[in-house]
Amino acid sequence: MIVAGQLDIEITQGFPFDLTWDWTLDGQLAPLAGHTGYLWLKDADSPYTVVMPATVDNGKVTLTDPGNIAIHLSHVDTAALGLGMYEWKYVDVDLDLVPNPVLSGRCRVVA
Fold first, then answer.
1. How far apart are CA 52 and CA 94, in angstroms?
2. What is the CATH topology of the domain spanning 5-110?
3. Which of 3-12, 56-65, 67-76 bottoms out in mean pLDDT, i.e. has the lowest?
């Protein structure tokens, strides 16, 4: 079973945001060849509305095998976010198309 990690982040509105981490499973870097993934950012007061999708397909998520996951939001992306609290989650999708929650937490957008 994969247990998702917790990480609270802060994004400054109108500035680029980068987050990179190594995902390990049983003490080893996770094999990411052929995987895809996505991050969603949801308003804390309206958890059913995704306000910022980031995916491998739209270029905001980069996976490097083994184990490295990078999220990049441009200054244009972050300028579109309203100030306040959000919830975020990154999910890896493996070769069998099984979604695996990897990392999540609260996100505060500040000026």
1. 22
2. Immunoglobulin-like (2.60.40)
3. 3-12
